[in-house]
Amino acid sequence: MIANWPGLEFAQLFQNRDLAPTTDFRAVAKGVLTAHLGIPQDALSSVVFPQSAGVQPMKELLRA
Asked: How does DSSP assign 17-60, residue by residue?
C-alpha cells in the first residue's frame, strides 16, 4: 500500500468491514485520461468529474 496506513482496528474500517480508502479514484482516472487521451485538466474537473477541482491527477501511471 502506498499511502497513509489507516489501520485495521474495528473503528478504523470503512463501513465497519473494509480497509478504508486512501486514494480518491478520480485522481487515478484523471491521470489516465490526461496521459492517454490528452483531456485537459479543466475539462476533467468541470465536465467529466464535476466539482473535483481539488483532486489532482496522479502522475506517471502510464509509460510509452
From this structure: TBPPP-S-HHHHHHHHHHHHH---HHHIIIIISTT-TT-PPPSS
